[in-house]
Structure formats: structure tokens, C-alpha cells
Amino acid sequence: MNKSILNKFSKIPVHLLFWVIVWFFFYTFFSAGSSNQSFIFWFSTILSVVSIVASYSFMYQIIPDYLIQKKYSKFTLYTIYAFLFSMCVVLMTMVFGFVFFFNLDYQTMPALTKNPAVILVCVFLIVAIMSSYKVVKYNLKAIDEKRELETKILKTELQLKEQELRFLKMQIHPHFLFNTLNTIYGFALKKSEHTSEMILKLSNLLDYILYQVDEPLVPLKEEIKHLKNYISLEKLRFQEGLAIDLKIHNFNDDVKIPPMIFLPFIENAFKHGHQIKDVLKVNINFECIEDRLIFKMENSTHQKKESKKGIGLENIKKRLEMIYEDDFKLNITNNSESFKVYLSIPMK
């Protein structure tokens, strides 16, 4: 059997119990000052039936179809209809009791059963309670559905974000490999004794890229270790034509960062930097200050160029925006003598 049907059947005992309580309320309330228990029994039963019909009409028809759908004119109209119907039934019940139970003796009727205003208030009090329950239940359900929808949207956005990050990383890897393999190719043509050393260092870097870079965060010390491997490859390529200064201040072993954050900047220095007096100068500085990691890099250049930006730098900017949103600071300065990078990110 369908789960929703089972759920509806499970509510029947609760509803029956509620209407039994309502009947006892009517019976106790209207029996005050009356010794005709038979009349009170039938009077309470008829009022209970009226309350049931009006309540379920509001709960399952008028409120869902008109109030919740914001059809206020029709909701008002059907509310008036329900009131008139209830008033007619109440008046007919009073006449029925007056004729058959009290033999047209108006004075012997209980005072409360002779007052239509009191009777209608009692009936619509029950209807109001049931209708309020329905509205509250609907609002709670709407809140749950909204929260569930927001959760699904957030999960979808997170998945898209992760896919885009993965795509950006995949773009960085070929860029890095292209530069490094070109360097090894040049050494191989020269039959340099450093070729095997470069291949070994490249192997270590590939291991890092293939097996560790997919992690959302990696230790800073591991990132710097592999940056040093990359720098050593460039040292072998430039030989005496490279002057590089790498400084690390207030190093914290517990700091973790997203992988491949700094490599595109350093790659850019070697790819687009220019030698001045046959020497390419590159200064790299890492510093942990309170809860921020500061990365500074400067390389020599001979003129300010408006050339198109490299794939690596564009990707790293997108990654920083996706990972840190507004909680990072990146300044890139390119003038006639140097290319400077300043990056500040939160430490985790």
C-alpha cells in the first residue's frame, strides 16, 4: 500500500479522538441549566456534524484552493457561504428542539440553546482551531520545502564550483608541463649531464600533481618543497643567467593552502621575465603574519607590455575568487623595470 495512503489512515484515530472531545465540549457546555439530556445529546451531535463539515471544507477545499492560492475574493465569498450554511443549520436545530423536545414551550428550552450567536461562536471556534492548524501546517511544510530546495541549490552550486576548480587545475597542468618539457628537450639536444637530474625532478613534480593536487588543501611545506623543485629545474635551464632569492619568514608547519596557488606566478616570472645584463632576477618571499599568508614575488623586465595575460595567471585569479571569494588580496604591478605580485590569503 502506498506510504501516503498509510499515513492518511494513521491520522484517523487522532481525528476521531478530537471530534469526540468536541462533542463532549458541546454536550457539557449546552447542558447547563437543562434536564433534557436527550435533547442535549442530539443538539450536541448536530453541532458536531456542522463543525466537522465546515472544518473539513475549510481545511481541504477553501484554504488550499483559495486562501493559499491568494484568491482572496473567492475565499471571502465561500467563507460567507459557510457562515450562512452553518447559521441555517443552527436555526433549524433550534426549531427542531423547540417543536419536538419542548412542545412549543419556548420558556423551558435551555438558555444557551436559544441564543444563535453563542451557538455560532462555539461552532466557528472549532472551525477556526482546525483552520489555524491547517495554515500553520502548510507554512511549516512550505518552510521545509524552501529549505530543502535551498540545500539542493547549494549542493548543485558546490558541485559546479568543484567541477570548475577541477577544470582550472587541468588547464594549469598542461601549461606547466609544456614549459618544463621544452626545457628538458633543450638539454637533451645538448646532451647535457643535467638531463637525468631534470627528469627526476620533473617526476617528483608529476607525482605531486597527479596524486596530491586534487586535495582541496595541502600543507604549505609540501607546496614550497615542490616549488623549490620547480625553481631548481629553472636554475639548471638558466645556469648563470638566473639570480633567484627565495625567503620564508615565520614558517608554520600547520598551515594548509589550496594546491598550485603560487606556481603560476613563478612560472610567469620565468616565461615572461627578461634578463637585464644577461641575468634574470627573481625575488620570492613567503611570510606568515597573524592569520594571513603573504606571498610576494618580483622579477626583472625591460619594458611595460600590454600583451595578453597567460593562461596560468587568469586561471589562478578565477581559483582565488572561487575559493576565497572576497577574503583575499591580489595586486599585480607591471612597470618598465619589474613585474610584481602581492598575494594575501587566509591561513587554515
From TrEMBL:
Annotated keywords:
Membrane, Transmembrane, Transmembrane helix
Which Pfam families does this UniProt record tie to the protein? His_kinase (PF06580)
Q: Tell me the ranges covered by the Signal transduction histidine kinase internal region domain, including all copies.
A: 164-240
- Which Gene3D superfamilies does this UniProt record tie to the protein? Histidine kinase-like ATPase, C-terminal domain
Q: Where are the transmembrane segments?
A: 12-33, 39-63, 75-102, 117-136
For whether the record's keyword set contains Membrane, the answer is yes
Report the protein name in the record: Signal transduction histidine kinase internal region domain-containing protein
